[in-house]
Amino acid sequence: xxxxxxxxxxxxxxxxxxxxxxxxxxxxxxxxxxxxxxxxxxxxxxxxxxxxxxxxxxxxxxxxxxxxxxxxxxxxxxxx
Length: 80
Hints:
Helix content is 48%, strand content 8%. By secondary structure, it is mainly alpha-helical. The radius of gyration is 12 Å and the shape is globular.
């Protein structure tokens, strides 16, 4: 997943829905939007890219419970 991505309204209902994943700031906002707004497994599997997420994980300012849940299920996201 790269280039400009447009999230559906059920994920990005407030603000911009288009994100240029080549831009680190927009990619940060994209990840934060998906991780904090997704409610179905399909949201995660369709809109997250494991490689991009792993590369940006340490910079994301997620609520501690959300970060811990993700790191429990995906140890590769934890501190290395």
